């Protein structure tokens, strides 16, 4: 256990009595033991002084992919969690898209054991269907008992509405959360970018917004029929935001997330045919990007995710049509978001997802567990290859200006800077 005093830290935590105050935070045995204007240090604890230090409750990312087991060339769990820690995340939800797919109790136990003892907590998402193929439900109850916090097939929509209906009914017995990605397959077809002026100009096959929206309408209709809890990840259109707002007003238990890249980039970056920008759902129009920002600020969108997805060079550095979807995003999440949102809103959206996924929130108060993200909100830097900490280098944010800097985290009794 690392015992420290964080010196002159500005606390950003609207739930804390010390919100917006500059304080010394003493941490002993993983617990906050005092918060003072100027801490005495009779026990000679290590004092941590960082330029313009700000701290908040630990950040949570609701969608990261690492690859292990089976795709360790993309990313390992231990390095992936180190990257998360250095990027300010105390907690991450791991997608089941490894090889084999995480669709049973022993796979959940394996990834949890791999993450044991590290500063950042890993919470596995179990596959909703066996092998994420959409045909039969996976062992949901067994996975829940082994530590799965939700169930979904990463970036795959559900063709069979009845399986979705049964899943939403079944998980209510143990208060399970179902994640449903929205992109109707036949409407998507062979599309690789958003359908519109840019796709026509580039001669690339387009995916209409309707592919997301029709699937989303169906998913919400089934939820209205079954009850239960549903999470819609990485929505990307204005109409999706409006539909979710309407569903929430009706009283449906639905939440949603948006990816950093959909808030900070638009489809015009595709003009160089660079496959780093190939993501699913695809980058959108500026109008849709602005609608997502509004969805964040008005409270319809519950959380922001990096949707961190490492892809090895053999599958990414290809012709645009052939390259795999996905960008890494942990390292750049905070700095990119600061270009479009206020620090307080960003932190709220990086913390509040914990409640949706049934995880513990730790307000910054004496006696509480120290689970803290450490950052500085004002410096300006340009993100280069040398700043990539992940094993895979497929970042859509190379060359982008970042505002602010993440120092690291204090969590699980460990200071990771």
Question: What are its keywords?
Answer:
417 residues, alpha/beta, 28% helix, TIM Barrel, Urease, subunit C, domain 1, 18 strands, 8-stranded mixed beta sheet
Explain what you see.
This protein has 417 residues and is an alpha/beta fold. The protein has helices at 77-86, 105-115, 140-146, 161-170, 185-188, 197-202, 209-226, 238-249, 260-264, 286-297, 313-316, 333-337, 343-351, 353-356; strands spanning 4-12, 22-28, 31-36, 46-48, 54-57, 59-64, 89-94, 121-126, 150-151, 177-179, 193-194, 206-207, 229-232, 254-259, 303-305, 372-382, 401-411, 414-416. The protein folds into two domains: 4-54 and 366-381 and 398-416, Urease, subunit C, domain 1 (Roll), CATH 2.30.40; 57-356, TIM Barrel (Alpha-Beta Barrel). The chain is built from 14 helices and 18 strands. Strands 1, 2, 3, 4, 5, 16, 17 and 18 form an eight-stranded mixed β-sheet that branches. It has a four-stranded parallel β-sheet with strand order 6-7-8-9. α4 (161-170) crosses α7 (209-226). It is globular.
Examine the coordinates and then state which fold CATH places here, giving the name of the CATH topology of the largest domain.
TIM Barrel
End-to-end CA span: 15 Å
| Quaternary structure annotation | single chain
Structural classification: alpha/beta
Taking pLDDT < 50 over at least 5 consecutive residues as the criterion, the unreliable ranges are: none
**How big a fraction of the residues is strand?**
15-25%
């Amino acid at each position: 256990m690392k015992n420290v005093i964080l010196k002159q830290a500005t606390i950003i935590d609207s739930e804390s009595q010390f919100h917006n105050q500059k304080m010394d935070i003493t941490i002993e045995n993983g617990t906050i033991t005092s918060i003072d204007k100027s801490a005495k240090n009779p026990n000679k604890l290590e004092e941590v002084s960082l330029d313009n230090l700000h701290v908040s409750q630990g950040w949570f990312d609701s969608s990261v992919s690492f690859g292990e087991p089976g795709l360790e060339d993309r990313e390992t769990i231990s390095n992936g969690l180190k990257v998360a820690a250095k990027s300010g995340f105390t907690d991450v939800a791991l997608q089941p898209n490894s090889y084999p797919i995480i669709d049973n109790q022993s796979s959940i136990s394996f990834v949890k054991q791999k993450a044991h003892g590290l500063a950042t907590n890993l919470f596995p998402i179990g596959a909703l269907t066996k092998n994420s193929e959409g045909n039969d439900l996976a062992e949901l109850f067994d996975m829940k008992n082994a530590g799965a916090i939700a169930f979904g097939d990463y970036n795959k929509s559900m063709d069979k509405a009845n399986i979705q209906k049964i899943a939403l009914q079944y998980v209510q017995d143990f208060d399970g959360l179902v994640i449903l990605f929205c992109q109707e397959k036949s409407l998507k077809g062979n599309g690789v970018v958003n359908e519109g002026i840019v796709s026509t100009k580039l001669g690339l096959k387009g995916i209409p917004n309707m592919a997301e929206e029709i699937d989303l309408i169906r998913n919400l209709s089934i939820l209205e029929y079954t009850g239960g809890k549903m999470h819609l990840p990485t929505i990307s259109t204005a109409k999706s935001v409006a539909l979710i707002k309407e569903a929430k007003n009706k009283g449906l238990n639905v939440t949603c997330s948006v990816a950093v890249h959909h808030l900070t980039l638009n489809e015009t970056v595709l003009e160089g045919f660079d496959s780093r920008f190939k993501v699913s759902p695809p980058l959108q129009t500026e109008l849709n990007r602005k609608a997502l920002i509004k969805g964040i600020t008005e409270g319809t969108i519950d959380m922001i995710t990096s949707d961190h997805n490492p892809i090895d060079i053999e599958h990414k550095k290809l012709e645009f049509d052939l390259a795999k979807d996905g960008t890494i995003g942990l390292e750049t999440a905070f700095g990119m978001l600061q270009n479009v949102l206020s620090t307080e809103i960003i932190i709220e959206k990086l913390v509040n997802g914990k409640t949706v996924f049934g995880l513990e929130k730790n307000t910054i108060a004496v006696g509480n567990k120290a689970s803290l993200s450490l950052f500085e909100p004002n410096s300006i830097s340009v993100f280069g290859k040398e700043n990539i900490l992940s094993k895979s280098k497929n970042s859509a944010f190379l060359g982008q200006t970042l505002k602010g800097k993440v120092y690291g985290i204090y969590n699980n009794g460990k200071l990771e800077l």
